[in-house]
Write a structure and sequence with these properties.
elongated, mainly alpha, Alpha-lytic protease prodomain-like
């Protein structure tokens, strides 16, 4: 005598699916069909963005360091210091994502905002010093090339961080993207300075630096609002 069909077969499913228990609760005894927990996926996404941006800024800094050794440009040295500081913000962010800690991520965001503000202070100080005590600028072609490299590297890193920050809803990554964008403006100012000095207007160099300082301060305020807004939620 033929056995009656399994209820699952009548519904068009495999009997094994009904006979095998499925648990979907976190900490339960079942499996998750191969899906990665959201916090792990977010941690990996954050580490990937931070690591890629660090690689780009590292290569940018190496290239600028080589040009600085060849030219001895103080302006390029200042931009190089900015870029190294920008790359260093990957350390607290990477630790926060590795720990999968929201609190550590907020603290990393505050550290990034502080780094942006320090960059503005350094840029403003150097500009004022140049206004009070002007210095001749040499190796203009190499200086412009170094600034262009800095701009490209920082802008690329800013895009990576900002996009990942929006995707992962990470205020720290968004703020760090703003930091890289601020340093890109500083690098662009190096290119502009080389141009105006080449046409015989050396005083425009520190004035451009002051204008860029105001831009960085504005980005500092926007980044602070981003980090604080997520902290208050």
């Amino acid at each position: 005598m033929t056995a009656p069909p399994h209820p699952a077969e009548q519904a068009g499913r495999s009997p094994a699916l009904d006979d095998h228990p499925h648990e979907h609760e976190d900490g339960g005894g079942g499996h998750s069909h191969g899906l990665v927990h959201e916090s792990i996926r977010r941690s990996r996404g954050g580490l990937r963005a931070v690591g890629l941006a660090l690689l780009i800024l590292g290569l940018t800094s190496v290239a600028q360091a080589a040009i600085f050794i060849a030219t001895g440009s103080v302006a390029l040295l200042a931009d190089l210091i900015h870029n190294v500081g920008d790359a260093a913000t990957a350390i607290p962010l990477g630790i926060a994502f590795a720990l999968r800690s929201a609190r550590a991520e907020r603290l990393a965001g505050l550290a990034v905002v502080a780094a942006i503000f320090i960059s503005a202070c350094v840029a403003g100080y150097e500009s004022v010093v140049r206004l009070i005590d002007p210095e001749p600028v040499d190796h203009l072609a190499a200086l412009a090339a170094g600034g262009a490299i800095g701009f490209a590297g920082n802008w690329w890193a800013a895009l990576i961080r900002a996009r990942a920050g929006r995707r992962l809803e990470s205020p720290a990554l968004i703020a760090d993207g703003a930091h890289a964008r601020a340093d890109a403006y500083v690098s662009l100012a190096v290119v502009a300075s080389a141009g105006v000095v080449a046409v015989g207007v050396p005083m425009a160099d520190p004035l451009i630096g002051l204008a860029i300082t105001l831009v960085i301060l504005r980005i500092t305020w926007q980044s602070w609002a981003t980090v604080r807004g997520h902290h208050d939620r």
